[in-house]
């Protein structure tokens, strides 16, 4: 992902079409589920539509009806992941009474950590969308709603800071968390305690950083 909007002129990768009928939506979902498994087991360099088609039990032509190439497919996986994160973030921030921003931030970090530990495809997708300028631009476009939401959550902390600046700050937060989760989850012979320690230090570091920004 990128903290900036998609660069001007950079292609945004999307499915060729989205399914409208229930049967087609089920097939589309099955393809994406199979793609996650292939991505985790084979890595992005060895990722092929042939293997996805076998696992999803669909003709390879069906996959090409939806996706021009593997780059568009991993961007759709990233879109799924980001949309789920946005939904969770909204639920954290819309609690009654409204929680303070450190609580929302810590809930957000805990949520991402749980997903990255439980679902190895999260990390695999994150790595895959770093592969080309077009996938990075698409990931940047995908994450805009999430950054806008976090910028709003940070409003009470930084009253006089323009929203555009808070959005940049949100990008720093998100990419710091994801980078540290990548370090924690990908470490050789890591244990749950190791991941918990990194998550705790990430919270401590980012909350302290935001208080520093607020006092600047």
TrEMBL record:
Keywords: DNA-binding. PROSITE patterns: HTH_TETR_2. The keyword rRNA-binding does not apply. SUPFAM superfamilies: Homeodomain-like. Residues 25-85 form the HTH tetR-type domain. GO terms for molecular function: DNA-binding transcription factor activity; transcription cis-regulatory region binding. Gene3D superfamilies: Tetracycline Repressor, domain 2. Residues 48-67 bind DNA. Residues 1-21 are annotated as: Disordered. This is TetR family transcriptional regulator. It comes from Corynebacterium frankenforstense DSM 45800. The lineage of its organism: Bacteria, Bacillati, Actinomycetota, Actinomycetes, Mycobacteriales.
